[in-house]
Amino acid sequence: MQPIVPKVRFSVKQKLCKHLRQCRQADVRLRYLIIINLLNGRSAYETADVLKVHNTTVYRVAQRFREQGEWGLLDRRQDNGTTKLDERYLAILYHVVRSSPLDYGWRRPTWTREMLVKTLLQKTGCRVHAATMSRALALVQARRGRPRPTVRCPWSKWAKTRRLNQIQELLQSLPEDEVAVYEDEVDIHLNPKIGLDWMGRGQQKEVETPGQNVKRYLAGALDVRSGRLLWVTGEKKTSALFIALLVRLWHTYPQAKKIHVILDNYSIHSSGITNWALGCATGRIVLHFLPPYCPEHNKIERVWEDLHANVTRNHRCKDIVTLMGEVRAYLHKRNRKRQRRQAA
């Protein structure tokens, strides 16, 4: 049976090996490896098995080598002309992919590569393949991700900015004998929050849930200066939980003339019994409400995100007592780290 590649001199084989070592293009390296394996006596099927390619690829590369020699192994796409993925195309794609398909007349609310190809064709007059669109998306550093649900603040932009500036000015000019904290509540569920985790190939980890959910609630206050976290726990998220936190703040900062509490507009923060408790504080505790639906401006939200990432997500606690023990241990450890960092 005639070999699929002709025999060559030893010097030619050495030259091919040298060019293989110098090559930095993966597809060209693969072609070199195919020819070198064939020249070393392997069959087409053995070469395909070793290099993890289809046998038709081996025959196609061998035919190019027979007809054109080493020149047939090179990538000649540079002769195709001007690339379609120029700076203008990528700049338009960058802005398109950051918007919604609904803005461009599509009825589907999420992008597909095919929809992007058609939209870019309308805007640039240039048609590309869906696979080329994948390369273009990588070039503009686009990714498939899960959007973050948000609620638009009902206030005007002017009113929202004014309130945020007032809070920022308060923090920047805070006297030494006064304290400011960010306050918020967080729910702790016995049913684990499901989150991303590393897994082996072909594996899907399982998170056992107790079935019937049990909840506990934390009300926390994050000191603006020290980063220290104070908290109280309760079985219900009511005004009593919030008042218990205010009482702890009162006793934790006995020397403070005023305790400024920056918080959201949840109903327990402005209920009748809460206002009565604030009256008993004789002005030492002052509430500063953030604009509605602006959690990104409440610094304690990041603490709760870390709490979920380190404790509640994919947890294996069998009961709520064990889970709350893990929560308290994490928060105590966090405070100790902050204290050591400030002492250093």
Structure, explained:
The chain is an alpha/beta fold and 344 residues long. Helix content is 46%, strand content 11%. α1 packs antiparallel against α2, α3 crosses α4 and α5 crosses α6. It is built from twelve helices and five strands. A hairpin with a 5-residue loop joins β2 and β3. The chain has a five-stranded mixed β-sheet with strand order 3-2-1-4-5, with helices on both faces.
Task: For the structure shown, list the relevant keywords.
344 residues; alpha/beta; Nucleotidyltransferase, domain 5; five-stranded mixed β-sheet
- Helix proportion: 40-55%
Which outline best applies? elongated
Estimated structural class: alpha/beta
Q: What would CATH call the homologous superfamily of the largest domain?
A: Ribonuclease H-like superfamily/Ribonuclease H
Strand order of the largest sheet: 3-2-1-4-5
The overall average pLDDT, rounded, is: 90
Measured by DSSP, the beta-strand proportion falls in 5-15%
User: Cα distance, first to last residue?
Assistant: 78 Å
Number of domains: 3
Could you describe the largest sheet, including whether it forms a barrel?
5 strands, mixed
Strand elements, count: 5
Taken in chain order, the helices and strands follow as HHHHHHHHEEEHEHEHH
Query: Radius of gyration from the CA trace?
Result: 32 Å
Chain-wise SSE layout:
Layout: H1 10-22, H2 26-39, H3 44-51, H4 55-68, H5 87-97, H6 113-124, H7 130-139, H8 157-172, E1 178-189, E2 215-223, E3 229-234, H9 239-252, E4 258-263, H10 272-280, E5 285-289, H11 300-312, H12 320-343
Parallel strand pairs: 1-4, 4-5
Antiparallel strand pairs: 1-2, 2-3
Helix pairs in contact: 1-2, 2-3, 2-4, 3-4, 5-6, 6-7, 11-12
